[in-house]
Amino acid sequence: MSRDFGKVAVLLGGSSAEREVSLKSGNAVHNALVQAGVDAHQFDPAHQPLHELMQGQFARVFIALHGRGGEDGTLQGALEFMGLPYTGSGVLGSALAMDKVRCKHLFQVAGLRTSPYVVVDKNSAYDSQAIMAQLGHVMVKPSHEGSSIGMAEAHTAQQLKQALQDAFQFDDQVLVEQWLSGREFTVSILADKALPVIEMRTPSGFYDYQAKYQSSTTEYFCPADISAEQTAQLQEMALHAFNLVGAKGWGRVDAMQGDDGEFYLLEVNTVPGMTEKSLVPMAAKAQGIEFSELVQRILEQTL
């Protein structure tokens, strides 16, 4: 199959806050493709203008860019303009999934369970006391960042104020979400099918940047220790959310189980991590799909 792909650009790095993670993902993808006999080449848009993809006569693109400029629809639009097939979601699906606030709005309208929330704009007045009175213990998230960048929890109005100031360094719009203290899960999607559910457990309280990429104490359970009925419910919920935002090809949907035992959607990821500690490869392996086959399957979607 590898000879059918032609010359492949693996887009990695970029200039978003997730550059370091993207470099790891892109390196892993590139190495796997090369070992499989694919004519794959690394391409970092932070150092190479996109028009060089045309000059380099690339046939297709594997997107391993996380965050803005890679996962938000802007790159996808540029590649479509150039007529280059690319992996993953299109312009609209990428843009919507990257926007946590609009995702929450969509989940609510579609009747998909998600934690109560408030949206705070950088240049608008807000009352941190009123927000805490409404939501209690909260999680603060920049609307357009991934890899848990800029996220923080707050128990008091003063902590919320500081968390918002920190989050505004990354985004002009911030999501303040009621804290969920239950178990944390993720469902990987590959070719319109849900892979085995993974549960993540970390002593830090939530699955933040350190727990994802630096900690040796984070535990992963794949498949997750939940009933067959709960697994099916969570997979169906994840697929619904994935399709709702217009995502395609492959990705990941994160959720939590509240104290009430119900599942609550967190967000949709259209270019999830592909590092050695990443969740999509872990779920694929539990399904009998090794990393090399996984990256080829994702690339096959461009044919």
Automatic annotation (TrEMBL):
GO CC annotations on file: cytosol
EC number: 6.3.2.4
Active site annotation, chain numbering: E18, S147, S278
Subcellular location: Cytoplasm
Matching Gene3D superfamilies: 3.40.50.20, ATP-grasp fold, A domain, ATP-grasp fold, B domain
A Pfam family: Dala_Dala_lig_N
Domain spans labelled ATP-grasp: 104-300
Enzyme class: ligase
Transmembrane stretches, start-end: none
Pathway connected to this protein: Cell wall biogenesis; peptidoglycan biosynthesis
GO terms (BP aspect): cell wall organization; peptidoglycan biosynthetic process; regulation of cell shape
Chief subcellular location: cytoplasm
Swiss-Prot/TrEMBL catalytic activity: 2 D-alanine + ATP = D-alanyl-D-alanine + ADP + phosphate + H(+)
Amino-acid positions noted as binding Mg(2+) 1 in the UniProt annotation, renumbered to this chain: D254, E267
Cytoplasm recorded as keyword: yes
Positions with a binding annotation for Mg(2+) 2: E267, N269
Swiss-Prot/TrEMBL keywords: ATP-binding, Cell shape, Cell wall biogenesis/degradation, Cytoplasm, Ligase, Magnesium, Manganese, Metal-binding, Nucleotide-binding, Peptidoglycan synthesis
Entry-linked InterPro entries: ATP-grasp (IPR011761), ATP_grasp_subdomain_1 (IPR013815), D-Ala_lig_Van_CS (IPR000291), D_ala_D_ala (IPR005905), Dala_Dala_lig_C (IPR011095), Dala_Dala_lig_N (IPR011127), PreATP-grasp_dom_sf (IPR016185)
Matching PANTHER family: D-ALANINE--D-ALANINE LIGASE, D-ALANINE--D-ALANINE LIGASE B
Family: Belongs to the D-alanine--D-alanine ligase family.
NCBIfam families attached to this UniProt entry: D_ala_D_alaTIGR (TIGR01205), PRK01372.1 (NF002378)
Protein name, per record: D-alanine--D-alanine ligase
Provenance organism: Pseudoalteromonas ruthenica
